[in-house]
């Protein structure tokens, strides 16, 4: 695990250095995109390879899934990226957009603090209790019960959440909706929710930076950012009753639970999947690239995205993105074929 973590950190650092801001629509032979900060490390790893393969220069701004959806809806970028699928209203507003799954990874529950052990075990009720502000101490009886044999400190818990419209927030709150009736009835799911406790920060980098300065803090962030920042991550109980860490095998196991893909690729949730898949980590998500089906950049978009969902998947494991399941890949290619100039 140590060698793999070091390899992930080195690759992630190089990838993040390549991420650039998104601005106005790009010129011929180039693409501008914006959105999910979750997928930014992977997109950044793709950028030089797509340039080398096709001469297509891609810039990407990790402004959050909500920002990416707004940007592509307003056609200020050539593509958007979101960890949350488009709602029917968003599809209507985007006027002829397609969403294409292009990446698969996990949302980790990352934490740090004096005396908190590695791989703290959490179940759905504990995660909901923490993010609702009802579990306030790391040595709360509910946490001690889940972590028998581990010493938990008498340390305040500080929840750190996203303050922007975030697909990672959608992923976490979709999970919480599935495991906690109180969460579902009181808070619900979305790219933004009314948090009952905690402090907010913008983007994956923002919550990571805040956590790095918070003794006793916990946040939700894609696992690559957690490892890059040397945070500890929780082992989360899945439906089979197994506490799983967000590693590649556990992410792939969650992806393998997909049995069908709905029209518009809108029904492929893999949070808290079937107990038949005991290896699955329960807070995983697909990330989507969102493009107009009619675009003057159709050639460049199709070159980029087709490469990303095929050869580009090989860049994922170093950043803890699992290759797309075959069923999802087939749906992605089918949708991409509808894009035209």
How is this structure best described in words?
The longest helix is centred in the N-terminal third of the chain and has 15 residues, at 2-16. Helix content is 37%, strand content 18%. The protein has 13 helices and twelve strands. It folds into two domains: 2-106 and 285-336, D-Maltodextrin-Binding Protein, domain 2; 107-255, Periplasmic binding protein-like II (D-Maltodextrin-Binding Protein, domain 2, 3-Layer(aba) Sandwich). With 341 residues, it is α/β, with parallel strands linked by helices. The strands form two sheets. Strands 1, 2, 3, 4, 6, 7, 8, 9 and 12 form a nine-stranded mixed beta sheet that branches. A three-stranded mixed beta sheet has the order 5-10-11. It has helices at residues 2-16, 40-54, 65-73, 88-94, 124-131, 141-146, 167-179, 181-186, 203-211, 223-228, 248-255, 298-309, 326-336; strands at 30-35, 57-61, 79-82, 97-112, 121-122, 158-162, 199-201, 217-222, 232-233, 235-237, 243-244, 284-292. Strand 1, helix 2 (40-54) and strand 2 form a beta-alpha-beta unit. Helix 1 crosses helix 2 and helix 12 runs antiparallel to helix 13.
């Amino acid at each position: 695990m140590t060698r793999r973590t070091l390899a992930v950190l080195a690759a992630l650092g190089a990838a993040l250095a390549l991420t650039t801001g998104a601005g106005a629509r790009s010129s011929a032979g180039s693409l501008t995109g914006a959105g999910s900060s979750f997928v930014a490390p992977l997109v950044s790893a793709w950028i030089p390879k797509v340039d080398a393969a096709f001469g297509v220069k891609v810039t990407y701004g990790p402004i959050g899934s909500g920002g990416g959806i707004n940007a592509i809806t307003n056609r200020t970028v050539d593509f958007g990226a979101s960890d949350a699928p488009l709602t029917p209203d968003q599809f209507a507003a985007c006027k002829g957009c397609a969403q294409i799954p292009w990446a698969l990874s996990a949302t980790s529950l990352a934490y740090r603090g004096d005396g908190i052990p590695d791989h703290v075990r959490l179940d759905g009720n504990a995660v909901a209790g923490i993010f609702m502000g009802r579990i306030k101490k790391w040595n709360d009886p509910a946490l001690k019960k889940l972590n028998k044999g581990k010493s938990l400190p008498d340390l305040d818990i500080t929840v750190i959440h996203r303050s922007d419209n975030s697909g990672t927030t959608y992923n976490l709150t979709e999970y919480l909706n599935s495991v906690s009736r109180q969460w579902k009835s009181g808070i619900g799911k979305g790219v933004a929710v009314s948090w009952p406790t905690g402090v907010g920060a913008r983007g994956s980098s923002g919550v990571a930076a805040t956590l790095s300065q918070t003794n006793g803090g916990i946040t939700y962030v894609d696992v690559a950012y957690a490892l890059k920042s040397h945070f500890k991550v929780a082992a989360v109980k899945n439906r089979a009753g197994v506490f799983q860490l967000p590693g590649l095998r556990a992410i792939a196991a969650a992806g393998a639970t997909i049995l069908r893909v709905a029209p518009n690729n809108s029904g492929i949730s893999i949070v808290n999947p079937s107990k038949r898949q005991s290896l699955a980590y329960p807070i995983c998500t697909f990330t989507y690239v969102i493009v107009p089906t009619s675009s003057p950049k159709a050639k460049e978009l199709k070159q980029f995205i087709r490469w990303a969902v095929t050869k580009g998947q090989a860049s994922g494991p170093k950043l803890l993105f699992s290759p797309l399941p075959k069923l999802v890949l087939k749906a992605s290619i089918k949708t991409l074929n509808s894009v035209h100039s």
